Structures are given as C-alpha cells and as structure tokens.
Amino acid sequence: MRTAFGAEFDVVECYLNTPTVGVPPVHVADAVEEFVRNWRTGELRAADFDAVVDETREAFGRLVGVPGERVAVGSAASQLVGLVAQGVPDGCRVLVAEGEFTSVSFPFAAQADRGVKITEVPLRDVPGAVAEHDLVAVSVVQSAGGAVLDVEALRAAAETAEVPVLLDVTQAAGWMPLRLDWADWVVGAGYKWLLAPRGAAWLAVHPRAADRTRPVAASWYAGDDRWNSIYGLPLRLADGARRFDVSPAWPAFAGAAPALSYLASLDLEAVRAHGVALADRLRVAVDLPAQASPIVALSAPRAVERLSEAGVVASARAGRARVGFHIHNTGADVDRVVRALG
C-alpha cells in the first residue's frame, strides 16, 4: 500500500504503466465495488446516476479549465472525436501531428470518401502549419514518447488564422494544469492519468463549435428531458453540450466521479512537479534530455524485457519501452529502472 497526495494506492511495486492504464486510489476502487454490490442485489436505480455523471462533467471541466456545462459524456475518445469528424465539411484539410494517437486521427481519415484530407507534420511544426489547414486535431501530450505540444503557440496561430482546434488531453489531464477554454473541442479518456475505469470519456464543446459538431450517436440520454425522451419522435435533444452525450457506462462512471473529483481537488502544479521530477531523474541517468513530461520512452537494447525481468510494469510503444510517473510513484521506482537498464 502506498500513500500519496492524500490517497491510498493498493498498487504493485514499480507500476510505471499509467500512460496505458492508471491505477485508482483505494476509495475509487471501493466506489466501483459498491456499484457492483448494488447491481448484484438489485438496489440500483437508473435515475440515481444522473447526478454521478453530472459530477464528472464538472470535475473534467475543472481539470481542463472549461465550464462544466460545455462538457458531454461518452465511452471513448475516438467515439467523441467522431462527432467532430462527422461535422467537418467535404474537402476539409485537417492537420495532425506526425505519429499522433490514432483515436485522434482515424475518425478524420475515415472521412476520406468526402474528400477530407489529413496532413501530418512533426509536433513542433504544428503551430507553424495551422494557416494552411481548416482544422487542427492534436494531443497536448503525445502518447508514444510524452512530447508536449506548445499549446500557447498553437492558440496564437489558430486565433490569428481563425482555424478551429481539437485537443486530446488523454495523456495530460490529471497531471498537467490546463486552461483550454479557448479550444473548440477538448476530448479526454478517463482510464489513464485520470485514474478512472475504462469506459468513461468527455468532450468539451465551445459554444461557437456546437453547430459544427454532429450528434450522430444521439439517444434518449441526450434528450432535452432525458426521462421523457425514451420513446418516439420528433427529435428533441438538449440545447447545450448534453445533446452530444452517449448513454454512459454506469460502472465506469461510478469510479470516474470520485476519481476526477479527487484529482480536481489537488494542486496540479504540485502533481506535475512530482511526476516530471521523477521522469527527469530517470532521463539524467540514461542520458536523455529533459522534456517537461512524466512520460519517458527508453530505447536501450531489450529494454522492455529487462524492465519486465526486474519487476517494472511498463509498456512497449513505437519500438521503445515507455514508462510514466504519476502521484503514487517514488524515487525507488526510478532506481529500479536504472538498475534494470544497467
């Protein structure tokens, strides 16, 4: 058991795989277990989950610097990005980062039959290429190696060129302080740094972008009066971001509500400093440059196998071993990685 930032984590030694799957605090796992008990005994009431889901909207909004009323709920980042991709005009020119996580790029690439064209450029070149495109879709922190987008440079370029921006915060929200109320869309999945179960995701929609977002997965849950939108026509969707809701997976949101509320209560600058300091300590030991990110990609020979043999839980991404340091990690975890890699 580890204690960090006011929470307990029943986590195995040297778990460095948060960029793949986050480990929940004990109280979050307890909330999911309580859901299962209530489900098992028939004590669940569907309407009771409306407040739980709305709690996650507010918490996600606080974590990314966006008003909670702008936030829609879903199950996966790609599903929510698809609402944006379906709404782009025929022939739209979309700019993405080279090697971008495909949950960001594939929904737009799937629109090729409408003439939608995707251009990839190195992450550092994204701000400079904005004016030549009709939309930018990019992760704030890249999944494969933890590279961090120059958000302010992108904002300046997008505002000057009047080009809409979609930002994926799946590898950023939960450890990085964010203020993204200027972006047209902000999407994030909950099962990594947000320490929630898989199956919960959010999309913040700026009011100016609402008409360019298509509720292609509309259901009763997106109805203006949810519990009176279950049967029959006409279409009657909510006016705000709720019109883009996908009916939530209740077990996931049972854990997401306490997980996001917990993270939103923390000093995220302290969380950022903690994770980045551990990552930089590792980078110094293996002769890598600082990156202002808690994610480190390691290309040492047989890195994945050597880490696994040493009891380090990591992942393989883009031909390298990838580790990530979150709030429950310590300097001892860094030391074990260094020993494993010699």
From TrEMBL:
GO terms for molecular function: lyase activity. Keywords: Lyase. The keyword Lyase applies. It comes from Saccharomonospora azurea NA-128. Residues 27-283 form the Aminotransferase class V domain. Pfam families: Aminotran_5. The keyword Lyase applies. This is Selenocysteine lyase.
